[in-house]
Amino acid sequence: PMQLVQEEYDGKLWFFADLGTKKAQEIVDDQDVCVTFADTDDHTFVSLSGKARLSNDQKRIDQLWNPMVDTWFPEGKEAGNVGLIEIKINHGEHWDSNKGTIGFLYEMAKAKMNDEKPNLGEHQVF
Fold first, then answer.
1. pLDDT one-digit tens code per residue, 20-75
2. pTM as predicted
3. Strand duo 44-55 + 122-125: pairing
4. What is the chain's alpha carbon radius of gyration, rounded to the nearest angstrom?
5. Which of 5, 17, 32, 37 could bond 64 through an S-S bridge, CB–CB 3.0 to 4.6 Å?
6. DSSP string spanning 16-65?
């Protein structure tokens, strides 16, 4: 699991990453990514798609560094493998449902029987 490290959203998401991992190489090979967030207690879900790139910008690393990140990088923020994944978002969707699991299953079954789309709550595309 990865943790957002920024306080404000400006069209980009930032995550810390070990630049020596297979995941980092996957980003070099293919920059298309999808990031999802879920608050299952509140039945709220977000899916964001965009282009990723790796960064070793020390100024940005210093700005975003926090104690949680320090746990994953015991050599500290100046270690050569510490970097950031920057994702520039170009598409997003948000779902907000108060249906719960039983309500979700009911709506899916009802829609299938009536050959219609299920009513799963509020949906926004941005």
1. 999 999 999 999 999 999 888 888 889 999 999 999 999 999 999 999 999 999 99
2. 0.79
3. unpaired
4. 19
5. 5
6. EEETTSHHHHHHHH--EEEEEEEETTTTEEEEEEEEEEEE--HHHHHHH-
